[in-house]
Specification:
The complex is a heterodimer of chains A (about 425) and B (about 170). Chain A has about 425 residues and is an alpha/beta fold. Chain A has 13 helices and 18 strands. The radius of gyration of chain A is 21 Å and the shape is globular. The chains are: A alpha/beta (about 425), B alpha/beta (about 170).
C-alpha cells in the first residue's frame, strides 16, 4: 500500500475519517472559515437557507479588507450590515477596516494551525499552506452553507510534488520563484490539485517569503498548496496559538500525479507580462519598459520584508513615477514604522495607504488611467484587474517594483543593491 | 432537461475579472451584473446575448477570483449553459451552487464555432452540434454534485439538509 499525500491526510482528518484517497468526496468540518467584505452578500444567502443561527460562530472569522475605508455609500452600507451581523451572531473573530488583509491577519492571529483545514470565500485561501494547513477557496453560497451546517463537501485532490533545491541568489526572491513555477505549470497546470512542496530551499526562506509561494499557486488553478512546517513555523505560532495542533507531513511513498524538481540557485528575477500571471519571462526581457504606476502591497507581497526590500532600493532615491504602498496589515505597518522603513518610503516619494487589499482588484486607491502601465507586487494581472481594461499590469517582486519606481521604467533591482 | 442555444465562443483561461470586473461587485443583483457581463473582453455580448444562448470556452474557464458574481452575471444574461474543455475549480462549484448548468467536453468545446447551435441533454450529458451533426458525451457529474443540482442549487440543498420546510 502506498503512502498518503498531505491533502489526503489533511482532508481525512477534517472529515473525521481514518483514511482518504485522491478522488474521495468527503464532508469536511473545517477548523476555521473566513470571509471579507463579501460577508454582507453571504449573510443574505445564509438567510435564504432558513438556518436560525451560525452553528460554530467561534470558528468564523470576518475581515473588512477589500474596499477599506469604504469608497462609496454602497460599500459603507455593506460594511455596516456586516458589523451588525457580527454582533448578532457573536462571530468569533472580526477585524475592522485597517487591521489588514484576511490572509495576513488570520496568520498573525494564529487562527489556523498546521494540519488544520481552513476554507475561505477568497481565491487566495491557498495562502495557508505556508504553515502546513489545508487552505482552499470556496464561493459565497458555500460559505453560507458552512455557516448554516458547519460542513461542506470537498473532493480529495490529486497532488503534484515540487522539490526545490539550492538557495536563491541576492535580489532574487520567492516571488521570482513562484512566477517561474507558474510560468512552467501554466494557469491550469495545477487545476483541481494539491501542490505540495519539498526540498531544502524552503527551510532557508523566512516566513514572510514562504507565504508568497502557496498564495501564488492559486494562479495555477490549485485547490491548495503545502509547505512542510518546521521549527521556524512552530516558534512563530507558539506565543500566538490558543489550541494544540498536530502537523501533517506527506509519506515518503505518497503517490503524485506529477513530480518536478527545480534548482533555484541560478534563478534570475522574473516578471509576468500583461494580461496573464503565467505569462512569465526573465526580467531582462522587458528592462526599460516605461511605467506610470508602481504598486507594492497585497496578500502576496505586502509584508514587513517586502517593505524592507523596497526600502533597500529606495533609500536616498526619489521615485520617477507614482509609487503606492499598502501594507498587508496594521501590524506590518507598525513594525515598518518602528524600523524606520516608512520614513524611507515617504522620503522617496511613496504614497502610503490604509492596510488592506488596496488597488489589487480595481476597487479604489490606485486605478490606472487608460493605457497607463503598472508594475505590481500582486498575484494577478488579468485584463481589467486593476479597474481599467486597457491598462497593462506587470507582476514582479517588491525589489523590482521599487527599482522600477525609481527609474520610471522596468529595472533590475540588483543595480541598487550592494 | 434539454437546452438549445446559439454559441458564443471564447478561448482558454477566461478569467472572472473579464467575466465581471470587480468595479461592479458591490451589487449582487443578477440583472445589473448581466449588463456588464464579459464587458472587458467582448463589449457586444451583454447587448446581443439572447435567452438560452450557450457560452463555449477553452481550458480553465472562470479562473482567477472566487467571485460568485461571475456565474450569476452569466446566468442573469440569460445564458442556459456553459460548455468548456475544463473549468477553474471555484467557478465550477459556484456555477453548480447557483444553478447554472456547465459541462466539460474537450471535443465539443473545440469543435464549436461562434453562431453554431448546440442541443444539450443535461441528464444524459450529451452535446449535439447542429451544424455538424456530431454528438459528444460530457464528463459525468460526481454524485454529490448531482444531489445539489437535483435540489435546485446549494441553498435549497442546505435547507433540505437542515430539514427546514419552505413555507409561503
Amino acid at each position: 500500500m502506498s503512502g498518503r499525500t498531505f491533502a489526503e491526510k489533511a482532508l481525512a482528518r477534517a472529515a473525521g475519517k481514518p483514511d482518504a484517497r485522491a478522488g474521495d468526496i468527503l464532508d469536511v468540518r473545517p477548523d476555521l472559515v473566513f470571509s471579507h467584505d463579501n460577508s454582507a452578500a453571504i449573510r443574505r444567502i445564509f438567510e435564504q437557507t432558513g438556518a436560525p443561527r451560525v452553528v460554530r460562530p467561534e470558528r468564523v472569522a470576518i475581515t473588512l479588507d477589500h474596499a477599506v475605508p469604504a469608497p462609496t455609500r454602497q460599500h459603507a452600507q455593506n460594511h455596516a450590515e456586516i458589523r451588525e451581523w457580527v454582533q448578532a451572531q457573536q462571530i468569533g473573530a472580526f477585524f475592522e477596516v485597517g487591521r489588514g488583509i484576511c490572509h495576513q491577519v488570520i496568520s498573525e492571529e494564529a487562527l489556523v494551525l498546521p494540519g488544520e483545514t481552513i476554507l475561505g470565500a477568497d481565491s487566495h485561501s491557498t495562502h495557508f499552506g505556508w504553515l502546513g494547513a489545508f487552505g482552499a477557496g470556496i464561493g459565497r453560497s458555500e460559505m453560507a452553507a458552512l455557516w448554516a451546517t458547519g460542513e461542506l463537501w470537498l473532493r480529495v485532490p490529486e497532488a503534484i510534488r515540487i522539490t526545490l533545491r539550492g538557495r536563491l541568489a541576492p535580489g532574487v526572491t520567492s516571488k521570482d520563484l513562484s512566477l517561474c513555477i507558474l510560468g512552467r505549470l501554466g494557469a491550469d497546470g495545477g487545476l483541481y490539485q494539491s501542490i505540495e512542496f519539498a526540498g531544502e530551499t524552503l527551510a532557508a526562506l523566512s516566513l514572510d517569503e514562504r507565504a508568497v509561494i502557496p498564495n501564488m499557486m492559486a494562479e495555477a488553478g490549485a485547490k491548495n498548496a503545502y509547505l512542510p512546517p518546521d521549527g521556524a513555523v512552530f516558534d512563530y505560532l507558539e506565543a500566538r496559538r490558543t489550541r494544540d495542533y498536530t502537523p501533517l507531513y506527506p509519506d515518503p511513498d505518497a503517490e503524485y500525479v506529477a513530480e518536478h524538481t527545480l534548482d533555484v540557485s541560478a534563478l534570475e528575477p522574473q516578471i509576468a507580462l500583461p494580461d496573464r500571471p503565467d505569462q512569465v519571462v526573465p526580467l531582462s526581457r522587458v528592462i526599460g519598459q516605461p511605467v506610470q504606476q508602481a504598486f507594492l502591497g497585497t496578500c502576496t507581497n505586502g509584508r514587513l520584508e517586502d517593505l524592507q526590500a523596497a526600502a533597500e532600493v529606495l533609500r536616498g532615491q526619489r521615485v520617477r513615477c507614482r509609487l503606492i504602498v499598502i501594507p498587508a496589515s496594521a501590524a506590518v505597518m507598525l513594525a515598518a514604522s518602528r524600523a524606520g522603513i516608512i520614513d524611507v518610503l515617504l522620503e522617496a516619494g511613496a504614497a502610503i495607504g490604509t492596510p488592506g487589499c488596496g488597488p489589487c482588484m480595481g476597487n479604489h486607491m490606485g486605478i490606472p488611467a487608460p493605457s497607463e502601465v503598472t508594475i505590481s507586487s500582486a498575484n494577478r494581472n488579468y485584463r481589467g484587474r486593476m479597474g481599467t481594461p486597457d491598462a497593462p499590469v506587470y507582476l514582479a517582486s517588491p525589489y523590482v517594483v521599487a527599482a522600477s519606481a525609481v527609474r520610471g521604467a522596468i529595472s533590475d533591482p540588483r543595480e541598487f543593491l550592494t | 432537461m434539454k437546452l438549445e442555444g446559439k454559441v458564443w465562443k471564447y478561448g482558454d483561461n477566461i478569467d472572472t475579472d473579464v467575466i465581471i470586473p470587480a468595479r461592479y461587485l458591490v451589487t449582487t443583483d443578477p440583472k445589473t451584473l448581466a449588463q456588464h457581463c464579459m464587458e472587458d473582453i467582448d463589449q457586444g455580448f451583454a447587448q446581443s446575448v439572447q435567452p438560452g444562448d450557450i457560452i463555449v470556452g477553452g481550458s480553465n474557464f472562470g479562473c482567477g477570483s472566487s467571485r460568485e458574481h461571475a456565474p450569476i452575471s452569466i446566468k442573469g444574461a440569460g445564458v442556459s449553459c456553459i460548455v468548456a474543455e475544463s473549468f477553474a475549480r471555484i467557478f465550477f462549484r459556484n456555477a453548480i451552487n447557483i444553478g447554472l448548468p456547465i459541462l466539460e467536453s474537450v471535443e465539443a468545446a473545440r469543435a464549436a464555432q461562434k453562431g453554431d447551435t448546440l442541443s444539450i441533454d443535461l441528464v444524459a450529458g450529451t452535446i449535439t452540434n447542429q451544424r455538424t451533426g456530431q454528438t459528444y458525451q460530457a464528463n459525468p457529474y460526481p454524485p454529490f454534485v448531482l444531489a445539489i443540482i437535483n435540489a435546485g442549487g446549494l441553498v435549497p440543498y442546505t435547507r433540505n439538509v437542515l430539514g427546514i420546510k419552505i413555507t409561503g
